Structures are given as C-alpha cells and as structure tokens.
Amino acid sequence: MNISCQWVMFAVLSVCCLMSCHDPSRAQSGVSFRSSVLVDQAGYRPDAAKFAFVKDPHGNTFKAIDVRTNKTALRGEIAHVGMIDGNTGDTTFTIDFSALKAPGEYCIVLQDTAQRSEKFLIGDNVYTKAAKVSLQSFYYERCGVAVNNGTQWNHPACHTAPAHYFNDPAKTKDVSGGWHDAGDYNKFVPTTAVSAAFLLYLYEAYPGKFNDGDLNIPESHNGLPDLLDEARWGLAWLLKMQREDGGVYHKVSIKNWTGEHLPQKESDTQYIFDVSSTSTGDFAAVTALGARIFSRWDKAFAQTLLRASLKAWDFLRKNPAIVPAGGFRNPPGVEGGEYGDEQDADERLWAAAELYRTTGNPEYDHYFLSHYKDLGGANYTVGWQHVQNFAYYSYLMLPVDLHNYEAHSFIVGTMTHYCDVLLKRIQENGYRCVLMPDEYYWGSNSVIMGYAFDLINAYETTKLKRYLDGALDQLHYILGRNTFDISFVTGVGSNPVMHPYHQFSMLSGVHAPVPGMLVAGCNKYSRLRGRLLSEYPGRCYEDNAKNYFVNEPAINYTAPFAFVAGYCALTTGNDTANH
C-alpha cells in the first residue's frame, strides 16, 4: 500500500473542534441545524473524490473559500438536477469539488446567497484525529480501575467487588476490568470480543504505523503500541470470563436498570450469567487473533491467549449444538442487554479461521472447509450477532500455499457481488449512505460502519478503488455529510453530538461529552415517550441525552468506526486507478 501520512503523537486529548464559518449556540436537545451545505466536517484527502450536498440551493454556482486567506480556491456549478432521497424526504443537489487538491482549510459558499458549509480540511491526515479520539475513548470506558489521564473526564475505581453467579448467588468471582459496554456499566462478551477484534484487525492492517505513546493511557511508554495495550485490556477481561471446562460466561450485568449514576456510585449487585456457545465462539476467535498478534510483543501473554482459545474450541467441539438450547436469553426478572443469538455457526466458523491462521493446525482448516458455505458467503455485514465476515476476510489473508483455492474463490466471489450491491445502493441514495429504509434500527450507525469495513476488505482483496470510495462515502456521512449537518462522533467536527446518552458524560460535570464515541444514529422504531421522531427513517434522530434509542454510544459502535477512520487515515488509495 502507498502510505502518505503518519500518526501524529499527542499526550492529552481535547474536544476543541474546528470553529465553523458561523457559530450559533447549541441546542440542549434535538439537532442543531447549522447549514444546508453539508460536508464531511473532518475533511477530505487530496486524492479522493470530494462531494458536498445542498438542500434548496437557491442558485447555480458555488465557490470554495480558503479560510486562511479568504480567497476563492475553486469555482464550479451545482448539479442542475437534484436527487430525491426517500430515506429523509430531502432533495439533494451535488457539489463536486474534487478538483480542489491543495492542502488547507476551506468552506463551501453558495454564490449570491448566505449559504455556506462548516469548515473542513483537505490533507493526507484529515482522519487522524477522528481515529485517535475514537481509540482513546476506550480508555474512558474502562471498568474496575480509576480513570484519570489528566483530562477532565476522570472517576475513581468502579465495580471492584466480585460479581455473584446468577444461578448460585452465594458464589462470587472476580470479573473486574474490561470496558463498560455503552451508556450504562454492564459488560458483555459478544460486544467486547467484536470490539477488541476491530482494534486488533486495525493493528494487523498497519502493524508498523502504531506506536508506544500514541494514546494518553497509563500504559503509554511501556514498550507496547498503545493500540495493543487497549486491546489487551479487553482481552484480559475476556480471560476472566472463561469457565474451567472452556465455556465462556455470556455477560456481567445488574438485573434491572435503576437510574443514572456515576460508575463509582453503582449500588446494584452485578451478576455473572450462564455460559453460551456464541460467546465461547467469539472468545475462541478473538483470543486466537490476539495470540497471533501478541506473539511478537509478549510471548507469555500470547501463550495464555492461545491456551484459552484451544480450551474454548474444545468446549465447542464437545458441544456441537448451540448452548443453551435456542441461544442465550435473559432469565425471568432480568432486563437490559441480552445479546441473544439463535445460532452459533458464524462464531464457530470465525474461531476455526483464526485458530487455523494462528496455529496452522489442519483440524481447523478442515472445519472451515466443511462449513464455509453453510452461511452463504459474505452477504451481511459484521456485528455482534453476525461475525461470519470476520471469518471470511481472515481466511483471505492466508498465504497462497495455505488457503484452499475453491474456498478462496467462493469468498471473493460472494464478497465482490455483495459489495457491488452496496455500491449500487450508495449511488441511489441522496446522501451516498448505504442503508436501506428497513436498516434504520437501533445502532444503525454501526451498520453503516460495518458496511464500510466490508468495502475496505473488498478493496484490499481486489485493489479496485471504487470499493475504497464507497467506504469513504460512509465516513463522510457519519462525520457530517448527512441531513442533520452533525458529526455523529463526539468531539469530532465543528458540529458534533453534544448530548449522548452516556451516564459518565451526563453526570461528570464537564460541558462536553467524552470524545470519540459513535452514537447509535437514526432509529425508525424509536418511541421515546411514545413519540415518533419522523415519518422518514433517515430523520429519526435527535441529539437528546435522554433518548437512548438513538443517542447512546456503545463500544461495538465505536470500534468499527475506529477501524474505518484509522484505515482511511493510513491509506491513500493511490496504488490503483482501477474503477
């Protein structure tokens, strides 16, 4: 790959964002609509296509203004024909300023009107901050330890007491550590495993680009790249969740939500819930992945991970049917995150792929080759409930002499067909967003980032630039090129989310929320107090701290964003001109 940018080292994060071309005060809820000229508020790479969208342009021409000199850097025409976006009800007109390649800070102004965009950058490192703060946000979600790295967001140690087994409350176990899952303080194996995997895959994509001291965490300058230090924090907690027979407990949580409070003020008993084969499969996969990556840095930890992975695989081998029957369900009287999954074939396939890549043992290759067609190939994006694409993409990374030609061809064929369908959807959407109307459900922003992850893997496999362009379109949507003119990532962009449902941010007394968190996004099924936000699925969002249906962040939302932003910060796409 042609790498044109380096990570910028920094010690203390800030949520000081770019000032917009105009600066009205923020609303306390709802969405602050600041411009009808919509851009990626982080910016655009010089080599990339550059589009802005405008609703109701009231004119035919635009100019790009260099903010530093106030001079016109580019003039052009707005597309004469608009596109009706069925997901939002908007008619969008395209502004193509791809010819503007000079690094700098700009805004788009519609001539003969007062309409203008937020400021944005053009440069090789425009996504570096977004990637950095999203990775840093995992530190602020750490559980079982005091969080204090010199910023405003700090709290004493929380959840340090042993948790009780739900089925035998007299027994306890130390399961401290890990990451708080979302706006609350529960912890789940499926979301932790998937989140840690995204961090590890990001490192694996660019192992030479992540350094010790990149992030502002206690482990900085310990000789290990900070990205791996953070991934290790999640892996260390997962190890505590394994039972002696290799099975992995599904989650640690309270029984019922009892109101907002700071993490150190938790008064409810935490419980360890039963083993599930889906969690065991996730665990086997991510610990095998971690063992492979950490073998270079910490052989003892790598061996611990591999032993745990093999033990989990042995549990799966001895229990070929899903455990428990029908998949995990919350026991009666327990509310909150369930992460139930009625089949575990994808988790088992992912575990086999990672164990084969890590060990070379033909047992795992045999399992993979016996089952890789069962799920139909790459046809649905990665999420905590669907991890088969992790398995497929990992298999594609095998050396030529280790992969099966038929399996490789099947995976590439299904992946490119699936990603070509995604590109068609992007082309037909007024905001170049990949979502279909029925995909605006809880966590829709993470689905967008999952699709971007798929497109990046298609680009990595084929080197066809159209796939990377499609992934960048999704990043542009998340970072402000959307109907709301809002960056869905806290602390990134000139008009970011300010009121996420995130208890630590809500109650910390700090004006701005913890930076780097991706919120859930539009949810057409949301009914806060029975109120539907919009008849259009792509408008069912508000920046309201009480609306957890649309504005709660979660580690498994932020993790794919961190991968996509990190990847796009480190590759230029100049290594191919194929379309």
Task: Explain briefly what this protein structure is.
The protein is an alpha+beta fold and 579 residues long.
Order of helices and strands: EEEEEEEEEHEEEHHEEEEHHHHHHHHHHH
- Rg from Cα: 23 Å
Helix amount:
25-40%
List low-confidence stretches: 1-29, 575-579
Mean pLDDT: 92
End-to-end gap: 17 Å
Tell me the strand percentage band.
Answer: 5-15%
Number of strands: 16
The class by helix and strand makeup works out as: alpha+beta
Broad shape: globular
Query: Helix count?
Result: 14
If you had to describe this structure to a student in words, what would you say it looks like?
By secondary structure, this protein is an alpha+beta fold. It is 34% helix and 10% strand. It has a five-stranded mixed sheet with strand order 2-9-8-4-5, with no helix packed on it. The radius of gyration is 23 Å and the shape is globular. Mean pLDDT is 92; it is low at 1-29 and 575-579.
